[in-house]
Design brief:
By secondary structure, this protein is of the alpha+beta class. It has 2 domains: 33-76, no CATH class; 78-113, no CATH class. 28% of the residues lie in helices and 12% in strands. The protein has 2 helices and 4 strands; from the N terminus they run ββαββα. The chain has helices spanning 42-56, 96-112, and strands spanning 4-7, 12-15, 68-70, 73-75. The chain has a two-stranded antiparallel sheet with strand order 1-2. A two-stranded antiparallel ribbon has the order 3-4. Strand 3 and strand 4 form a beta hairpin. The protein is extended, with a radius of gyration of 26 Å. The chain starts with a strand and ends with a helix.
């Protein structure tokens, strides 16, 4: 909203009006952020987050990924759930999941069609 100008006796003052504040929305519960892997609360919060994920994902999807520690962070290894093949080392790290999607479509999906 543009500022509103009002005339005062000899000079002009610019008064800015506050923006409309959005109404509060009810949001679904969010998983808590994970602390560092070496901290005391890591196992408890990881359990809570896994319980949260079970409600969001299909029932049989737990076997498709296994979270593990990578240093002080949590990650999911890029391994095919069917044949346990990994992307070749010459594939750049940011393209490994893309390679995995193509591998699953090319090697496993076509055999069932």
């Amino acid at each position: 909203m543009p500022p509103i100008a009002q005339r005062s006796s000899a000079s002009m003052k610019v008064i800015t009006m506050p923006a409309n504040t959005p109404k509060m929305e009810l949001l679904p519960p969010q998983p808590s952020k994970l602390p560092l892997a070496g901290s005391k609360n890591f196992a408890r919060i990881l359990r809570q987050n896994m319980t949260y994920l079970q409600g969001c994902l299909p029932p049989d999807s737990q076997s498709l990924y296994t979270p593990r520690r990578y240093g002080n962070h949590l990650g999911v290894p890029c391994v095919c759930a069917i044949c346990e093949q990994r992307p070749p080392h010459y594939i750049k790290p940011w393209n490994r999941w893309r390679w995995m999607n193509f591998h699953q479509l090319a090697a496993h999906r076509r055999s069932k069609i």
